[in-house]
């Protein structure tokens, strides 16, 4: 379910495009041409507004919507006939544009606040399928990519916890045994002293093997170009991002299409390398002809539910500031 902050930032952004003089008037009217927003959501926003705890979020979201309404890159002062909130549910699997709002069936808008995460998907989806085909993955990436180091860490972890009912091999873990082992290890922070060395070896093994796997699948410039487009979420149709970076800097930009990219830029190099920093990690860097600076990011590969808990996931981060990313265009 979407958090209160998410609902404020997304719904208020849409309300601000509808020509109301202020937030309170928009919340009082509850316009029926703003679709998919229920009375419960409006009640929540009203209560949050009255409590005064989220004044900054209300103000920034309203400013974003107003700017988009007036912008020559956006609505050019024309109040839309229809705004749709996509709501808290996940979009269908074929929906590749991360849109939270749809305006007049044409403008797609993503409201992004305080996050540099581009994707949170399975490692195989990134490193093997290159973000081209998303499907359910239950494969244990650690077991596939670094089985010996994974088995060693598992055996040493079992010995450290004193559990005597665990399977012999890490490949035999099921949901119950994963939870049992997870419960007997520290939930966060440093690993126990006796596990520091095997965990470091495990992190290094996963990082290096994953980087090699990804690099092998990016053999030529065409693959590298497609990978960059997918990482940066370039789509056949342009869409807009309204939000704020982690330091609070406002973000208002249009994401260009692959065709827009090719008119101005081309791949000079796309490099990937292992960088074990407390957990398995792979860094990436794209050098482009025509761009002011390279585009950089990193991917964390980690258990989805804590140590030995759940299948591994890949969190894809963008390290370059959004306003420095080629084919991201600040709206006027």
What is the compact description of this entry?
By secondary structure, the chain is of the alpha+beta class. It contains 11 helices and 12 strands.
Q: Any key phrases for this structure?
A:
12 strands, alpha+beta, 11 helices, seven-stranded mixed sheet, 332 residues, 21% strand, five-stranded antiparallel sheet
How many strands?
A: 12
Helix content: 25-40%
Terminal-residue CA separation: 33 Å
What does the main sheet amount to? 7 strands, mixed
Q: Order of strands in the sheet with the most strands?
A: 1-2-3-4-6-7-12
**Beta fraction:** 15-25%
Arithmetic mean pLDDT: 93
Q: Outline, from the CA principal axes?
A: globular
Radius of gyration: 23 Å
Count of helical stretches: 11
Verbal overview:
There is one protein chain. With 332 residues, the protein is an alpha+beta fold. It has two domains: 4-113, no CATH class; 120-330, no CATH class. Helices cover 37% and strands 21% of the residues. It has helices spanning 4-15, 23-29, 39-51, 55-70, 123-127, 141-145, 147-161, 175-183, 193-216, 221-231, 258-264; strands at residues 34-35, 83-85, 101-103, 107-113, 117-121, 239-244, 250-255, 266-274, 281-289, 295-303, 312-318, 328-330. Strands 1-2-3-4-6-7-12 form a seven-stranded mixed β-sheet, covered by helices on one side. Helix 1 packs parallel to helix 4. The radius of gyration is 23 Å and the shape is globular.
């Amino acid at each position: 379910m979407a958090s209160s902050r998410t609902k404020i930032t997304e719904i208020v952004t849409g309300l601000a495009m509808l020509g109301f003089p202020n937030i309170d008037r928009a919340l009082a009217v509850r316009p029926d041409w703003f679709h998919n927003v229920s009375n419960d959501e409006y009640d929540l926003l009203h209560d949050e507004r009255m409590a005064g705890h989220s004044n900054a979020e209300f103000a920034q979201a309203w400013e974003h919507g107003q700017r988009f309404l007036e912008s020559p890159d956006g609505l050019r002062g024309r109040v839309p006939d229809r705004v749709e909130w996509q709501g808290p549910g996940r979009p269908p699997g074929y929906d590749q544009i991360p849109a939270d709002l749809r305006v007049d069936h044409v403008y797609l808008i993503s409201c992004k606040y305080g996050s540099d995460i581009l994707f949170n998907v399975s490692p195989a989806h990134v490193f093997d399928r290159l973000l081209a085909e998303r499907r359910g993955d239950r494969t244990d990436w650690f077991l596939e990519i670094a089985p010996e180091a994974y088995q060693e860490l598992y055996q040493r972890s079992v010995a450290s916890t004193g559990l005597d009912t665990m399977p012999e091999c890490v490949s035999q873990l099921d949901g119950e045994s994963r939870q049992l082992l997870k419960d007997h290890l520290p939930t966060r922070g440093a690993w126990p002293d006796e596990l520091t060395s095997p965990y470091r070896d495990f992190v290094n093994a996963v990082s290096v093997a994953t980087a090699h796997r990804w690099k092998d699948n990016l053999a030529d410039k065409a693959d590298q170009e497609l990978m960059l487009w997918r990482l940066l979420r370039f789509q056949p149709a342009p869409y807009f991002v309204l939000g704020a970076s982690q330091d609070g800097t406002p973000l208002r930009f249009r994401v260009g299409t692959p065709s827009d990219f090719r008119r101005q830029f081309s791949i000079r190099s796309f490099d990937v390398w292992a960088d074990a920093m407390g957990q398995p990690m792979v860094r990436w860097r794209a050098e482009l002809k025509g761009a002011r600076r390279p585009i950089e990011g990193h991917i964390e590969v980690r258990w989805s539910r804590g140590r030995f808990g759940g299948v591994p996931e890949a969190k894809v981060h963008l390290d370059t500031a959004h306003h420095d990313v080629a084919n991201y265009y600040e709206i006027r």
